[in-house]
Amino acid sequence: MNKVILLILISSQFAFGAPKKLEVWFLSLDKTAFIKEIIPQTKFSSMLASNYKCQPMGEYCFDPQIGLYKEDKNKKIIQARDYSNLDSKEEFKEEGEYKEGIYDPCKEMGHFNIFCGKNLKKNTKNKIPKHKLEIWVDISSTMRQIDFKNHETPCFRETFLRRVNKKCGLNEKMKVYIFDENRKELGNFDRVCLNSGLNRVDRLMKDIKSSKAKSLVIITDIYEAKAEFIDFIENEMGGTVKGVKSPIYAKSIVDDVSRIQKMCR
Fold first, then answer.
1. Three-state DSSP class for 89?
2. Pairing relation of β-strands 183-185 and 215-221?
């Protein structure tokens, strides 16, 4: 009898610390859309070619460090997409300051950290959140090939979030996080399309386990669809994956807006 009670307590504690509904979307490269956005070629040093193995993407090769590129007959890199203009637009504040548009826990929740130095407010640790839906959006460098934008047009991730926001309300019924190696809460959608950095799937899995959201939707790219991560989502967390058996593209996520809006009710 005591063992049964113990198992119930453990399972209840696990359920409280993990989302009841979990979806992970692995977006693939829409090669047709990408070709229209090709930037004039940029020459790369032939010395780089020896460090990369071509992962075919239509007529291009892909590498997480340099993106899409072409090789000549001697396996030398002859053309790659130039993202230097996008990178130069990103402005980072000095260490110890919060990036523009990022949620500030010092003001809103009173959490202790090395920057604000406040004590944790009583009863916030185990407080059940009011919001029912969380959306985590990948902003790492590989997302540039999956969901790119120009300066006049928002990426599909931003469009998707703004449409969901009309019914759910940011920081009301819904919270949005961006992630690369780390996860950050957003106060607006301005930084969703600026991509840089790498991913840490091990950290992402820990964050998923600790999420208290009723429903959690994660948008990432197909390069993160590793067997270990998929097994964790489906078998350990009882979640659903999209985009593995058949590809889904960034432009198609806006078709899911009305369904996702129902998760925040």
1. helix
2. unpaired
Count: domains in the chain? 2
Output the CA angle 151-183-158, nearest 5 degrees: 30
Residue with tokens 């990432």: 220
Q: Are 189 and 149 in contact, with CB atoms under 8 Å apart?
A: no
Contacts 24+ apart (CB under 8 A), 151-157: 154/193, 155/192, 155/193, 155/250, 156/250, 156/251, 156/253, 156/254, 157/192, 157/193, 157/219, 157/250, 157/253
Q: What is the mean pLDDT of each run of 10 residues along the chain (265 residues)?
A: 44 59 95 54 39 63 67 67 44 39 48 49 54 95 86 89 96 94 90 87 94 95 94 96 94 96 93
Q: How many residues does the chain have?
A: 265
Integer Cα distance of 265 and 233 in angstroms: 24
Same domain for 164 and 216, yes or no, is yes
pTM over 0.70: no
Q: Are residues 22 and 133 in the same domain?
A: yes
Question: What range defines the domain where residue 73 resides?
Answer: 41-81
Cα atoms in the Cβ-side hemisphere of radius 13 Å centred on 164? 31
Say if 118 falls within a structural domain.
no
Tokens of 259: 């369904």
Question: Residue 132 class from Cβ within 10 Å (0-12 exposed, 13-18 middle, 19+ buried)?
Answer: middle
197 and 215 belong to one structural domain: yes
H helix or E strand, kind and range, residue 60? strand 60-63
Measured CA distances, 162 to 72, 157, 176, 178 (Å): 42, 9, 11, 14
Residue 114 counted as domain residue? no
- pLDDT of amino acid 81: 54
